[in-house]
Amino acid sequence: GAARLGLIAATGADPLEVCTAPRTDATIEPDAALGGVYADAYQRYRELYPAIRAVTA
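Given the sequence above, the corresponding structure tokens read:
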């Protein structure tokens, strides 16, 4: 985003040509069979968040 805006500002390039959507090669969907793993990891995150909040803020 910022690089594209910089290109437009620096060169006067046409925004409609510079700001095109990227090509999509593949779509990755979550594996429903791993739902329990995701739920467990999220629960651990929720429990740890109060302790690490000050460090990550």
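The radius of gyration is 21 Å. Try to locate this feature in the token string yourself.
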